[in-house]
Amino acid sequence: MFKRHRYTQDCSIRVIAGRIITSTLVLFGASFISPSLADSLSIGGDTFLSGDSAELSSGSARDAFVAGFSSSLTGEVQGDAHIAGFTASVLAPVAGDVYATGSNVEIAAAVGGDLTAAGFTVRLSKGASLDGNARISGGNLIIESPIDGALLAAAATVRLDASVGGDARITASDIAFGSGAQVAGLLTYSAPKEIAIPESVAPASRVRFVPASASSVFRDLGESVGEPLQNFWPGFASRVMAALLVLGSLVLLAAILFAFAPRQVESMRQRASEHAWFALVFGFVGLSILFGAVPVSLMTLVGIPFALVALLLILIFWTLGYLLGLYVFGTRIWSAFDGSYEKLPAKLVLIAVGLVIAAALNFIPIIGWLVNIVVLFFGLGAITIVILDYLLERTRPTKVNDGKTVQESGMVTG
After folding, report:
1. What are the tens digits of pLDDT across the range 42-96?
2. Measured between alpha carbons, how far is 122 from 214 in angstroms, rounded to an integer?
3. Is residue 406 part of a domain?
4. Residue 170 to residue 155: CA distance in whole angstroms
5. 144 with 162: CB under 8 angstroms?
6. What confidence tier does 296 reach under pLDDT thresholds 50, 70, 90?
7. Do residues 177 and 168 lie in contact, with contact meaning Cβ atoms separated by under 8 Å?
8. Angle at CA 110, nearest 5°, toward 89 and 156?
9. How far is CA 134 from CA 141, 150, 180, 277, 289, in A?
10. Whole-prediction pTM value?
11. Among 186, 162, 158, 185, which Cα is nearest to 171's?
């Protein structure tokens, strides 16, 4: 049986943030190096693999880099393993360290070094083992395999049902201890008030309580990105003002679009509303093209300026697509209540309310993130469809009086 204790999610942010940011950069870099979406590349014993379903079954003589929608290691790795994907699974032994990130991360094999992982769900299955330290951050953390080193965890839910050979610092809103849970070193936890830790996990002499507060969270996060930022970390009032400034800027941008391109905005809204599935698919395609342009441009020195342009386009289209997606959803919901949105003030109110609701949804694990992604894809899909229609229209042949086919560019083709 698991004994449950609730307390607020807090610290360990400094160490975990630094480790996760570093590992994430390495993982995304791995996807850039792989030459094609279903290919693997081996250089100096290191193996690189990316693809929709990336499974490294051949193993690696040194380090392994795997990135894809569904990523897995089923071959033994003699060095370090870097893996990223919506699902990321380590199913074969890794002699060195493991860096993993994704929505669902599973470690189900022996790891000879340290583990650094982040995800909505991170699981160390019973068949796994860890010779080094574990640094884990996520929504739901399940530990069923022994950790020889130290444990550093920050999550919404933590279930510990295995032994920890060193110190442990655990922060979660919901923590559960199984019959196999045991901490050999110092167990430190943070909470608004002190809780009882079972003696089977650690005796009272080796349990330390650190009161948690919102200020301590921001202080730790500030230290993780640099000492100079700590003294300038915004207070509550300044964070509210910053949120209002962002909200006002986005509403102002929407007002400019409605004022100067009303027909184009309505056309894209209608496309996304009437062809929902096409909008979602083309939204994914459009975003993939923009993100894919960055690594392709970075492959040559000549293309570096184009990479900067691609990054700028990502920012622009992300913002415009998100606003358009909110407008699509807002008008559909408002129309269901027989509401009118023809006038500009009504449209801006829909955008503002949508932004507030979307921001609030981000506090709901997984579901909030998925809703925001769907909103983004709807808007980007409508923009992508309109751009493709324009390009096809420009290249479509037309008939002239002499019967010859002429491209709009003026070139005769028949």
Report:
1. 888 888 887 668 899 998 999 998 877 788 999 999 999 999 877 899 999 999 9
2. 25
3. no
4. 8
5. yes
6. low
7. no
8. 55
9. 12, 6, 17, 41, 36
10. 0.52
11. 158
